[in-house]
Amino acid sequence: WSVNATAGLEYDSNPTLVGDSTIGNFQEDDDVAGVFRAGGQIQPVDHEGARLQLGYDGFVSLYHDTPDVSQQTHVAWANALLDRDPIRVGVRYDFAYTDLSLNDRFRLLHRVLPSISLRNDDWGVTRLAYEFLASNFDDRGAPSDDDRSGPQHSIGLDQFVLLPAPLTFAQVGARATTFQSDGSEFDYQGFD
């Protein structure tokens, strides 16, 4: 198991700027925020190539002069792996939500990421992965907020090449993504 926490300060030259407009009734001035992160994980299963990890990651920013842009994000996740050399099969699930002004729901996310990896002798790993991401943006008054909601599908192939110390590895990959939003102006199909 592990637990972590950090705290710090953040300077933002224009925290209310979103595109060409501002959030709330604030001037376009700079501000400072207290930034806090906390997280932890446990591994209830670690037995003969099978592993299950459960975790939480949290983030809070508290702005001094512009509290409407303060935010909190919470992520609960689970990761399961089955390793039968040379093949590793895994699946990860994330549930996340973000609030603005610390109590105004902004976004909910569900993500599922199954993958299969093949160890290439002692020189690398090849991984095929699929990602499903369902996002739900709450309507905060801007007409386009709800339009950004929708499912995203990605499939990718990555090749990792192990390098000699002090380097660790190099990676090359390709990914195809399609996003079908509730508003067509946010739809996306691409390859990278």
What proportion of the residues is helical, as a percent range?
under 10%
Mean pLDDT level: 88
Largest sheet, strands/sense/barrel:
10 strands, antiparallel
Q: SSE order in H/E notation?
A: EEEEEEEEEEEE
Distance between the termini: 36 Å
- Spans of at least 5 consecutive residues whose pLDDT stays below 50 are none
Describe the structure.
The chain is mostly beta strands and 192 residues long. Helix content is 0%, strand content 69%. It contains no helices and 12 strands. The protein has strands at 2-12, 17-18, 21-22, 31-47, 50-63, 71-84, 87-100, 104-120, 124-137, 150-162, 169-179, 188-191. Strands 1-4-5-6-7-8-9-10-11-12 form a 10-stranded antiparallel beta sheet, with no helix packed on it. A two-stranded antiparallel ribbon has the order 2-3. The chain is globular and about 55 Å long.
Essential attributes:
192 residues; mainly beta; 10-stranded antiparallel beta sheet; two-stranded antiparallel ribbon; globular
